[in-house]
Amino acid sequence: MRQMWTLPDGRQVDLTYFVNWRPWLWAPSVARAMEFLGDLRGKRLLEVGGKDARMSSLLAMAGAEVTMLDIRLPACAHEEVAKWNVAGRVRLIETDGGFGCIAGETFDAVFTKSFLWCLEDLSGMLDQIDEHLAAGAKVAFVENYRGGTFLFWLRHVFVHGGMCPYTEATFRNIRPEQIRLFHERFADVTVRRSRYFVYEVFGHKRT
User: Fold this and answer.
1) Are 115 and 2 in contact, with CB atoms under 8 Å apart?
2) Which 3-state string (H, E, C) describes the chain?
3) pLDDT tens profile 140-162
4) β pairing state of 186-194 and 198-205
5) CATH number of 4-146+174-205
6) 29 has which bridge partners?
7) Among 149, 92, 143, CA closest to 119
8) What is the pLDDT of residues 19-34, one digit of tens each?
9) How far lies 26's CA from each of 21, 80, 126, in Å?
10) I need a surface site. Which of 1, 73, 139, 145 has the fewest CB within 10 A?
11) What's the distance, CA 10 to chain centroid?
12) Which tens digits make up the pLDDT trace of 92-142?
C-alpha cells in the first residue's frame, strides 16, 4: 500500500519507495520522523547509514542540504540522487565508521533508519552524533526494536522467513534498557514503539 508525502513545492511522492525495505513496517514511522523534523528548507542534515541514498534524496527534495555517511556506498546511491535531480544538495561520503570526514561540521538535524541496531558501541555513536549537532538541532532515529529472545525468534521465522542472516550476537540494538542513552544525551526525548518492531526516538540538542 502506497503512502504519499507532500513536498514543500506541492509535489506528491510515494514515501514507500524511499523507505524501500518493508515499507508497511517502516513508512509510518519515517513519516512521523519527517513531521518531527519539520521544514527542512535550507537546513543542514546528516544521515548516518543511508545505504542506497533513497532517504537522503527525499530529504534533499524536502529542502535539506544532506550529508550522507556509510561504510559502503553502492553505485546505486549516486544514481539515486541523480535520478531525483538532487546531486547538488546531497553529499555522499564513504567512511570507515568514524566521523573524521566531517570534523568541525555541525548540522541542524540528524536522521537514521535501521542503522543503530548493528552497532557494538551505541553509546559511542550517540556521542559522535551529539558532537556534530548545531544549537537547536533535532535528532530523529527510526530503528529496530531488539526485544527479547521470543520476539527475536518471531522476527527470524515470520518476518524473514527463517532466512534472516543476523544471529543473536550480531542483532544487538535497540534494547529497551538502552533508551536511557538517548535521554542522557538529548533533550525533550520522546520514544514510541511502532508495530512491535520499530522504535521512533526523537529529540533535540541539549542547551
Assistant:
1) no
2) CCCEEECCCCCEEEHHHHHCCCHHHHHHHHHHHHHHHCCCCCCEEEEECCCCCHHHHHHHHCCCEEEEEECCCCHHHHHHHHHCCCHHHEEEEECCCCCHHHCCCCEEEEEEECCHHHCCCHHHHHHHHHHCEEEEEEEEEEEECCCCHHHHHHHHHHHCCCCCCCCCCCCCCCCHHHHHHHHHHEEEEEEEEECCCEEEEEEEECC
3) 999 988 655 555 555 556 555 55
4) antiparallel
5) 3.40.50.150
6) none
7) 143
8) 988 888 899 999 999 9
9) 8, 20, 22
10) 1
11) 24
12) 999 988 899 999 999 999 999 999 977 889 999 999 999 999 999 999 999
Rounded Cα distance, 28 and 32, in Å: 6
First-to-last C-alpha distance (Å) of the chain:
41
What are the grid coordinates assigned to 11, written together?
Answer: 509535489
Q: What is the CA radius of gyration of the chain?
A: 16
For residue 3, what is its C-alpha cell? Answer: 503512502
